[in-house]
Design goal:
mainly alpha; two-stranded antiparallel sheet; 15 helices; 2 strands; 3% strand; globular; disordered C terminus
């Protein structure tokens, strides 16, 4: 086993380090890290509202605090896909060489994400299905943020923009410079949505969710997946990325249960910084209450990235 670990450190870790410098992976990492505060706040109130202790639950119901605790997750973790679209687009502008256009790329990325979200119309009233703005849309937000920011930065770098006269205020000039990139990528994403309307999926979010997240849910319930985690546990970067995937899969799986039993008996329980280093996976924050809330695991995953 030591020989295998040494081989992985010599051959796989350098490759992982090179991947870590990839602008696309850096965009994903920085975009996720910027949401740490939103995820942490939403996770805390989710935990407070989900403790399955009957006297505590009765107290929340009698004082209506359960309604108060439900407000915050509804606009934090349940809108994570929307926030992810902006943060990834903003980070993409910085990593693709156009940091001065970061805010514009974030806004355009969020607009492109909303273009992909299905819209219902009942009796002349249009509404967005909010379920697609949460965790179900994270993968599309990541892909869309990277794609939109890369296209916008490429257009700007090629100077395919509207140039205003020198006497025009910079703020006005920057807004006009965003017209051509915005028109191109929003039209492109609208075309993508139209193509998916012709498929059985109906929209790209359901398609990506079915193709990526559903297989991940099946993967996390198998023994080979657990053995794979054991093998890659020596590489913190790979471990954190794997942990993120398992969290987003949002299932109490075979891997989670085994790792939780192992982790709960370890002295590293008290340290958020050291328990990953001993090879244990899963935060256990919400598992103490007997129910699994992936948002707490995702929050600690982002915290670990920030402290690498």
């Amino acid at each position: 086993m030591n020989a295998l670990m040494n081989w992985m450190e010599q051959h796989l870790v350098p490759i992982a380090n090179r991947f870590a410098q990839n602008p696309i992976l850096k965009t994903m990492s920085e975009g996720a890290m910027s949401l740490l505060a939103v995820i942490m706040v939403g996770s805390i109130f989710s935990i407070l509202n989900g403790i399955p202790w009957e006297p505590y639950t009765n107290f929340l119901n009698s004082t209506h605090l359960n309604e108060f605790f439900a407000f915050i997750p509804a606009i934090t973790t349940e809108l994570l896909g929307l926030y992810m679209a902006f943060s990834v687009g903003r980070a993409g502008a910085k990593n693709f060489g156009q940091p001065e256009s970061a805010f514009m790329c974030g806004i355009l990325s969020m607009a492109c994400y909303l273009v992909l979200v299905p819209i219902d119309s009942v009796e002349g009233v249009s509404s967005i299905q909010t379920k697609y703005l949460g965790t179900q849309g994270i993968f599309v937000a990541l892909i869309g943020g990277i794609l939109s920011s890369s296209i916008v930065t490429w257009i700007i770098q090629k100077k395919i923009v509207i140039k205003m006269p020198s006497g025009v205020p910079p703020m006005v000039g920057e807004n006009f410079a965003a017209l051509i990139p915005g028109f191109v990528i929003i039209t492109l994403f609208a075309l993508i949505k139209w193509i998916f309307l012709l498929t059985p999926y109906g929209n790209p979010i359901d398609c990506i969710y079915s193709i990526i997240q559903t297989p991940l849910q099946a993967l996390t319930s198998s023994l080979p997946a657990f053995l794979l985690l054991i093998l890659i546990a020596s590489d913190p970067l790979v471990l954190r990325c794997s942990w993120f995937i398992f969290c987003v899969a949002d299932s109490v799986s075979f891997v989670d249960r085994i790792c939780w039993r192992k982790h709960s008996q370890c002295s590293c329980w008290t340290s958020n910084r050291t328990y990953l280093e001993c090879g244990h996976v899963g935060s256990g924050l919400s598992r103490r209450s007997g129910s699994y809330d992936w948002t707490s695991d995702l929050a600690l995953f982002l915290f670990e990235i920030c402290t690498i």
